[in-house]
Give the backbone structure.
Amino acid sequence: MAVRFWRIALVVPEVHTPAFAEAVGDHADAVSSFELDEGETWLIEATAHTPPDLPRLETRVALLAQALGVPEPKVIVEDIPSIDWVSYTYQAFPPIRAGRYFVHGSHLEDPVPPGSIPLLVDAATAFGTGEHGSTNGCLQALHRVSRVLRLGTGRGQGALDMGCGSGILALAVAKTWRVPVVAVDIDPEAVRVTLENAHLNGVAPLIASEGGDGYHTPVVRRRGPYRLITANILARPLARMAPLLARNLVPGGYAILSGLLNRQERHVIQAHRTQGLHLVARIPVGEWTTLIMRKR
């Protein structure tokens, strides 16, 4: 079925992103924001089912910019062509190969390639369907690490997925090693999607997912420390959380870090080196880099 939409977009200073997103949200049905330049600017994008009132929207944005003491951002409104969203979804989310992993949606009709590990993940309200460079890099990293790392069920032998999003990395770990995995995220919706995906992939008994404040989440403390930690978040949180990661990783354990641009990898590597980890490998995928690090 073809549905018509309108797109609203503007670039704003990072510190004022929530305020501008709220202002735009009153004129749209859905709003999202993305970091463009670290610590500087963010892109706010919104989608509306009806044509937005551009003069009114521009006035509100102008008044907000004046109140905040920042230059008025340019408001872009575009008519998105009618799209058959069912066909578009099939085309936009084709199966993805990353190492041993074969990520596909529920619309897949062809058989899963022999020897691969299938991960059923539909596009939903949580990040992580395999097409993004950071997620793809993490899956490639898990494939590499699986050749040399053994996980178990005892304390200090399991895995943690920090910032789990859709749970795709937790699914990959559970299916590869068949061990319990802790998956946490600050977003309750990510926890819900992770648990749903765990059920769809037949690994629900292996995945414990809870919402909370990173390494301070109760389930992380109860189940830790870990032999494998995956963290696909952003560069600055990764660097800031390096001491806590090191504290929760057993000696000889591996950390897979992603969500950082190529130019940010040096900062993230150094933050973890000061905590006793060393770089094993880096996997660039487009403008994104995934790091494999190991605790001495």
